[in-house]
Amino acid sequence: MRLGIIAAAFVACLTAQALAQRAVSFPALNPAETIQADLYGAGKHGVILAHGGRFDKESWKTQANELAAAGFLVLAIRFRGDGLNPDGSPGSFGSDANNAADVLAAAAYLRHSGAETVYAVGGSFGGDAVGNADASSPGAFERIVILASSGGETPEKLTGRKLFIVARDDASADGPRLPEISSHYARVPQPKTLIVLDGSAHAQFLFATDQGPRLMKEILSFLKAP
Prior knowledge:
Blueprint: H1 2-19, E1 22-27, E2 34-41, E3 45-50, H2 61-69, E4 73-77, E5 82-84, E6 90-92, H3 96-112, E7 117-123, H4 125-136, E8 143-147, E9 161-167, E10 171-172, E11 175-176, H5 178-186, E12 192-197, H6 212-224
Parallel strand pairs: 3-4, 3-7, 7-8, 8-9, 9-12
Antiparallel strand pairs: 1-2, 2-4, 5-6, 10-11
């Protein structure tokens, strides 16, 4: 009995270590530069998390742990253009081309790490980066989740399965985001799904609202579906 308890504790310890957050780095598509990221979990299905412009890679920690617990190998990336605004808050200042290239470099890293399939989740600014990466490299991602973003410059070139999610009353200084997102979504080829949640929270801010549990459930269901 005692040996069984010790063995179970050892297995639990190994499992916790496998799921724990690990700091990693890998080459950008320009080999003279390096991308920093946080790696969680283990598995044959890799998920890239691309943050919004007012967030950083650490902002995904709760969602990354949930995805890792569900059996995914999760990579939350720091864009090379990330920095700080004058008030000390996170900011992202890289070009669209570099941001898309960073997402593609993350996909290459996950495949090198044993992922047989790669998915990507992008919020707002990160959703643009994921969409542009997918459009520029068909087949790089089996599934993408675009959160509160129009999905980049050429939505008609997106491949694989696509899930768009936005809050109904999400708005910027220029007005409501839903009309533009819906317009871009209409140009996206099948298979695709658009989910409109209640509320006005933008992108990753949705996780901290009463819509957070549903948002995470929809993402998990989409990524785990056969």
